[in-house]
What we know:
alpha/beta, six-stranded mixed sheet, three-stranded antiparallel sheet, 33% helix, 23% strand, binds adenosine-5'-triphosphate
Amino acid sequence: MRNTVTAPTTYAWEIEARDLRVRVGRRRMAVDDVTLTMGRGVHGLLGPNGAGKTTLIRALATVLRPTSGTLTLLGGLELRELRRRIGYLPQDFGYYRRFTVREFVEYMAWLKEMPGRDVPSAVQRAIERVGLADRADDRLKTLSGGMLRRVGIAQAIVNDPAVLLLDEPTAGLDPAQRLRFRDLLTELGTDTCVVVSTHLVEDVAAACTDVVLLADGKLVFQGTPTQLAAAGTAEHAGDSPIERGYTALLAGPKRHGSW
Length: 259
Ligand SMILES: Nc1ncnc2c1ncn2[C@@H]1O[C@H](COP(=O)(O)OP(=O)(O)OP(=O)(O)O)[C@@H](O)[C@H]1O
């Protein structure tokens, strides 16, 4: 019999960061004094290259420790229990090429300490949700890049996480897969706190309830996609209102990386 740990359910936000700083390497403060809260819904994490998106996601995934400030996840669950309740797709996820899709997702379910009796049905459901049921017993080495990305998404959702962290999940997906993925995001966001980093502003407009914009490790903006769009004017660069809002908010005089 497993010990059942009773999770606190009295938190206001799934994710609460106060004055959060995360150092990478020796000196670089890749997340620099960020204060934000995130609850259920789909939070789009936007920002130019090097803004600190991956570093923030890694801190949320408990892979990196905060350098200073506080980060409270799920009301302050202890680390082991917290990790059971997180789903994480890193930018580059490692896998064994000879595993089948099912074996790999099962293996990840096992690492997340899911009760054994729940594993087969949870694995099947996760594989179906990413549209890979017909490839479930194929080896990973036979899949395309987009399919592998979907396997990565399946392993991230297999434990029905309360906090789901997806670092550039749409990279490598073809347009049809991206549309299906947006529907999945919307569905997941109804009862999960989903944080998704992306460079595709259209994905944010279509599937996110909330946008978090980072630049140089700082929080530049948090609000709805409509509020982001409202920040732009016709003079700002971009193909859509939301892209023009993004450009407007990043157009500070001291921002480097103007390329
Ligand atoms: N291990 C490391 N050592 C030194 N600097 C690092 C390290 N990892 C990241 N950085 C730096 O920290 C900053 C933030 O990087 P991060 O990967 O979090 O940005 P990002 O917003 O995810 O970028 P991208 O959109 O290019 O993926 C960058 O300037 C990066 O060069």
